[in-house]
Design goal:
7-stranded mixed β-sheet
């Protein structure tokens, strides 16, 4: 059973505005096919590949209890990941799904407001 209906409005921004803390922020919405799901983002640990300009995040999906009754209605789950004082200049963010067998969201570019 697939739980993810769609990934919407994924966005990444690395703030370079004067007086700011150079925070890197990733947001988005996972739309599930039923209720009862939860989701979260965390930085991928360990070897994340050979591209030092690509940030890798784990998208943690927690499915509902199979024995629980869940509404069969499209259910959005908003996610946000922020890290302050990021010195690396990432150009892209890729995602790895953890906790469910789902396709990950597409790779997204990192915007760099000056």
């Amino acid at each position: 059973m697939s739980g993810v209906h769609a990934y919407k409005d994924f966005y990444a921004s690395h703030d370079h505005m004067p007086g700011r803390n150079r925070a890197l922020r990733v947001t988005g919405t996972v739309v599930f096919t039923t209720g009862g799901w939860s989701c979260n983002l965390r930085r991928t640990e360990g070897n994340t590949g050979i591209n030092p300009r690509m940030l890798s995040l784990d998208l943690l999906l927690d499915p509902p209890d199979p024995a629980a009754g869940v509404p069969k209605v499209l259910t959005p789950c908003d996610i946000e990941w922020t890290e302050d004082e990021v010195s690396e200049e990432y150009n892209e963010v890729r995602f790895r799904v953890v906790g469910a067998e789902e396709e990950p969201p597409p790779v997204i570019p990192v915007e760099h407001p000056q």
